[in-house]
Amino acid sequence: MQKTGQPTINDVARIAGVSKKTVSRVINKSPLLNGDTRLRVETVIADIGYIPNPQARALALRRNYLVGLVHDNPNAQTVMNVQRGMLEGLQGTEFELVVRPLNRGAQSMLSDLRYFLERQRLFGVLLMPPISENESIVQLCREIGCRYVRMCSVSLDDDAHMVASNDREAVRGAVAYLIEQGHRRIGLIAGPQGFRSATERRAGFEDALREAGLPLQRSLIAGGDYTFESGLVAAERLLDLTPRPTAIFSSSDTMAAGVMHAARARGLDIPRDLSIIGFDDTPVAAHVWPPLTTVRWPTVSMGRSAALKLISGVGEEEELVEEPSLFISTLIRRGSVAPPID
Amino acid sequence: MQKTGQPTINDVARIAGVSKKTVSRVINKSPLLNGDTRLRVETVIADIGYIPNPQARALALRRNYLVGLVHDNPNAQTVMNVQRGMLEGLQGTEFELVVRPLNRGAQSMLSDLRYFLERQRLFGVLLMPPISENESIVQLCREIGCRYVRMCSVSLDDDAHMVASNDREAVRGAVAYLIEQGHRRIGLIAGPQGFRSATERRAGFEDALREAGLPLQRSLIAGGDYTFESGLVAAERLLDLTPRPTAIFSSSDTMAAGVMHAARARGLDIPRDLSIIGFDDTPVAAHVWPPLTTVRWPTVSMGRSAALKLISGVGEEEELVEEPSLFISTLIRRGSVAPPID
DNA sequence: TTGTAGGCGTTATCAA
DNA sequence: TTGATAACGCCTACAA
Fold first, then answer.
1. Where do runs of H (alpha helix) occur along chain A?
2. Residues 289-328 of A with CB under 8 A from B
3. Are B254 and A55 an interchain contact pair (Cβ–Cβ within 8 Å)?
4. In chain A, which residue's Cα lies nearest the Cα of B78?
């Protein structure tokens, strides 16, 4: 045993009376191995508490047992949820999670990421939206041989590289619920341009109107950028309309909170005078008054599945469980929706 | 150059006509080096774009260029803020951030952490509250030679190992503000037992009352665990009191949101009938109605400073900027406080 | 089925 | 001030 106290492959080999390579084979579950030998080595490993050194493996394999989460922080809670899901998926494996925020706006974004991936020789990365939509980033991953899974509001890639939510259908359902309640003048606060999630959610909104035979009025659509302030401003514009919309679908909870403030500032009661539905189900949704009806997408599950996809085929022994690629969102009905009064 | 395309130290040595060790000395800024040689080597390094391989260094040095964030996820936003701060501090260095959540309740917590730290040979870790208060964890770090910085609501260690907020004083100030507004019956919703932050905030609350010569009534203190539900329940108990408190200080924003719901359920208007102050300044504070007056602690700055402390003395060249150890919180005045009406 | 030799890219030792 | 040589702990190729 070394002075560091950590037993190495040499210690195992010596004690078990075999060569290093044999130990290596045991560790890596090589199929061509005598059962006896394997058992003997495994016993020694368990006995002295040997753990393979990840740094040495990384050097020899030219590949690190590190999985990355690359994101652009649109929403802290969402990032944390995905992170938690990934950690669940990585639980019990030899992989660790490395988090890497990126600045979407920066010129150097691509080179930053390349530097990071090449240097650390990540095993794989989960690309969160909206950067998962950037094809040159995906191209980079392919180029340098880094596994990747993309997370997005719609499928953009094959199943092995994708965890997608069904934003369009989810929003369609949410708006259909509003229509069911009797609403006919429904406003939309859309997400920022260039975000696939914004496009999908808007499409879902339009789907619902079309299905119900309701006209699509441009004036009832306002743009936002997922922030509270943008929701506030957009809502002010919509609430200035005559006749006023009786309901608003906001493409994010945070913007929905802005809508609530705008409504309150005009003395409108929610949901009596205005119904609101948000998207995300972040903590704020449950904590505002009235509690916000919203669309919840399974961020934790998506993170977990993505992690499992990233490392699939590594442990060999682990069943090749088919991880899903499409994740269904659900409408969480709380107190911000009621039938219109007029 | 290897087939991988990444130039190695050997390439540099060959081209510069020196030995590997000399290149190594240049990389590591060894002082005993001829200026000419250094310049020549540096030129070659820049020319061919050589980047030292972190895995190889980790193996040779028995130490990884990885910094960990160990937390127990009390609050997603707080964790994200700290994480962001750390990444700012690590920006431009060779260090990467690894995130590691821990389950405070689990029996295996300590062994989980040991396994993680020993295996990955982390350079250092930032311990977030409340696990930063666990002395056996700190002991573990010392034992295995992993640098650490503790983040807490009060100083628990020497400056090199500490970033502390001044919760007690901050809460004292917040409650003093309530008293200034004319409140005399002020309720406290305390944090969970065993959390240092809970103790500190409570102490600050008591300080303020004492200073103002107000009696400390046990009945005006309710316990919570930082969750929304616990805040709701605690507030219900306080609001059942006769006479009712005219103000409540809640030890977290999330609990404060619960207080708001409880107040609303009784038809109380905030801040007319009840003033509320929270703690954390999470997004929910700004988004509830009325916007919550709260205490903001500089989580991002604390993360940044902690990261800088962790890696201080590594780059050699970088100035040994004295990073602060005490961080001052500020009272963010919004709309949830008004003078009492009775 | 198992072992030997050599390499992964870096740093440490010690001599020149 | 520099350089040869040997770690660091593991894996691949090839041989036995």
1. 9-16, 20-27, 35-48, 54-61, 76-90, 109-120, 135-143, 167-180, 196-211, 228-240, 253-265, 283-287, 299-311
2. 289
3. no
4. A76
The superfamily CATH assigns to domain B167-297 is: Response regulator (3.40.50.2300)
Question: What pLDDT score does B91 carry?
Answer: 87
What does the block give as tokens for A87? Answer: 């950690």
Chain B 3-22, residues with CB within 8 Å of chain A CB atoms: 4, 6
**Nucleotide nearest residue B21, measured CA to C1':** D3
Going from N- to C-terminal start, the domains of chain B cover: 60-165+299-327, 167-297
Contact A59, A34 (CB under 8 A): no
Per-residue confidence band for A172, with pLDDT thresholds at 50, 70 and 90: very high
Q: In this structure, are residues A339 and A181 in contact, taking their beta carbons and an 8 Å threshold?
A: yes
User: Quick check: B1 pLDDT over 50?
Assistant: no
Would you give the DSSP letter of residue B95?
Answer: -
Rounded to a whole number of angstroms, the distance from the CA of A300 to the nearest CA of chain B is: 13
| A80 contacts in chain B (CB < 8 Å) | 73, 76, 79-80
A282, A281, A264: which is closest to A273 by C-alpha?
Answer: A264
What values do phi and psi take at B93, rounded to 5? -100, 180
User: Is B83 an 8 Å CB contact of chain A?
Assistant: yes
Which nucleotide shows the minimum CA-to-C1' distance to residue A7?
D9
pLDDT: is A229 or A12 the higher one?
A229
* Burial of B34 from C-beta contacts in 10 A (0-12 / 13-18 / 19+): exposed
CATH class of B60-165+299-327: alpha beta
* Chain C, protein-covered positions (CB within 7 A): 1-13
- Distance in Å, alpha carbon of A239 to nearest chain B alpha carbon: 18
The answer to whether B6 contacts A118, with C-beta atoms less than 8 Å apart, is: yes
Interchain CB distance below 8 Å, A55 and B53: no
What pLDDT digit, counting tens, does each position of B130-151 carry? 999 999 999 999 988 899 999 9
Q: A60-165+299-327 and A167-297 share one CATH topology?
A: yes
pLDDT on residue A320: 57
In DSSP terms, B221 is beta-bridged to B188
What does the pLDDT read at residue A4?
Answer: 54
**In this structure, is the CB of residue B2 within 7 Å of any atom belonging to strand C?**
yes
pLDDT in tens, A56-84: 988 888 888 889 999 987 788 999 999 99
B245 has a pLDDT exceeding 90: yes
Helices A109-120 & A135-143, crossing angle to 10 degrees? 30
